Amino acid sequence: MEGIKKREHAEIFVLGKRVDDVTAHPFLKPSVKSFKATFDAAFEEDTRGLARAYSPFVGEEVNRFVHIHQGPEDLVAKVKLLRKLSQKTGTCFQRCVGWDALNTLYVISGKIAEREGRKEYLNRFIEYLKYVQRNDLALAGAMTDVKGVRTLRPSEQPNRDAYVHVVEEKAGGIVVRGAKANITGVAVVDEVVVMPTRAMTERDAEYAVSFAIPLDTPGVKVVVGRQINDGRRLEGGEIDGLPYMFNHEGLLILEDVFVPWERVFLYREWRWAAQFVEVFSNYHRQGYAGCKSGLGDVIIGTAHGLARQLGIADKPHVQEKLTEMVFLNEAIYSAGLAASWEARRLLKNGGWWVDPMYANVTKHLVARFPYEVAKLSHDIAGGLLGTAPSEADLKNPELRPLLEKYLQGVPEFTAEERLRLLRLLENTSLSVAYLVESVHGAGSPQAQRISIQRVYDFQRAEAIARRLAGLKAEASGDARAEPRRPAEAEK
Ligand code: SF4
Question: DSSP secondary structure string, 203-245?
Fold first, then answer.
């Protein structure tokens, strides 16, 4: 928190006004707190083991959020850590995008070194990684361009800046311009890692760039986005005013920003853009298994608590709904664990990546199941979820005795306890972090369907079926092998 207070030029805007100290601003303070939880996790007893890892690059323990995965166990630890952190924060804690960006840069710069013998990107990246690890920096990852006309490639856009691109090459580095949308946690970080967002052709070469910049680099602006009920943060209080942690996303605008060569990790490398996106998005899709199942725990627990307050927790139809919520939640988590245990090496010496089929299945479940879990929790909570009086009403001495009398269910719980759980359920189950992010984060559902279709080998599956049906197997499929093709990143 002290580090981000010292940023000099960071131009951050909330509701049209410039914010000087994000750690004190009521709109952003909850985001600072949830980001901070990723640092605290390395010192808290229940997460200490998960949140620390030995880095061979600096020869010491580092926070896992800046660690390069050294095997399947590290990927499993990631999912477990994210689940615990969601339980601690009740929201998205925003640091995983930068972490996935680091691992992607390690894989892609390593592949360029192995395949093409060009080691400059890898060497630069390793130096940057050591700096990040030694200083335990908070990073945002910026992938999604604003994209302009969706049917046109970057180089075909009427607005040349619709994708981040190089506008000038200088002796000491490059000058870039453009904007990245939906950037998680961007106002409360030390640095941003910028990445390409799609496959490119040679004509798009100026758009195929990746680099890292401190957030207070001249020319950088952040416009923080709105979220449902965000005005409550400005109310203060301890029930309605979102006293706990929250996340934010923002628009990152780069207006002729200078990036020194030592911070440029991909320059006009259009051939590598598609693989870059594939490696990154699969890392992030796997991560959702942890953070969204952890949020699911919060919602299931809240629904269970409300059911007890109403005296219906043991009713068969409520038990049925709670069980369904658990099943949906654990299915998400299980798929992420499978993606982690089935990890594979993309480099001769490391570069551990998730199983692309299971990572995509994970995220595709996440795009569907949280909406179901949320609906079931609303069903159990009752209509008061959408109509409960405010914290200010409860604090009004004239109203309080009446509300205490009329909002109480089972006498062992108070009306205030009920109101607190209702607000928690509202703020978690209807949040950007649990719903919109679940659909669109790490790629919209169609992106997962395309990946799933690419990785599954339908011909091989048909060969399996033909063999069992007593039909002649066709030459293309080995009926004894798994029907799974390698992803582009594995080739
Ligand atoms: Fe991390 Fe989940 Fe937030 Fe992504 S959505 S940054 S994986 S907490």
Answer: GGGGG-EEEEEETTSTTEEEEEPP-TTGGGGGG--SSTT--S-
Place of tokens 């628009």: 251
- Alpha carbon nearest to ligand 1 atom 4, residue: 96
| β pairing state of 11-14 and 220-224 | parallel
Q: How far is the CA of 167 from the centre of ligand 1 (A)?
A: 32
Whole-number Å distance, alpha carbon 428 to ligand 1 midpoint, is: 14
pLDDT of residue 128: 98
Over residues 336-354, mean pLDDT = 97
Query: Distance between CA atoms of 414 and 407, rounded to whole angstroms?
Result: 8
Range 151-157 average pLDDT? 97
Percentage of residues of the chain with pLDDT beyond 90: 92
Ordered alpha helix ranges (H), 384-475: 384-387, 391-395, 400-406, 415-429, 437-440, 445-455, 458-468
- Residue 301 in 3-state DSSP? helix
Active site residues: 92, 96, 184, 249, 284, 288, 291, 437
Mean pLDDT of the 288-298 span: 98
**pTM: predicted TM-score of the whole model, two decimal places:** 0.97
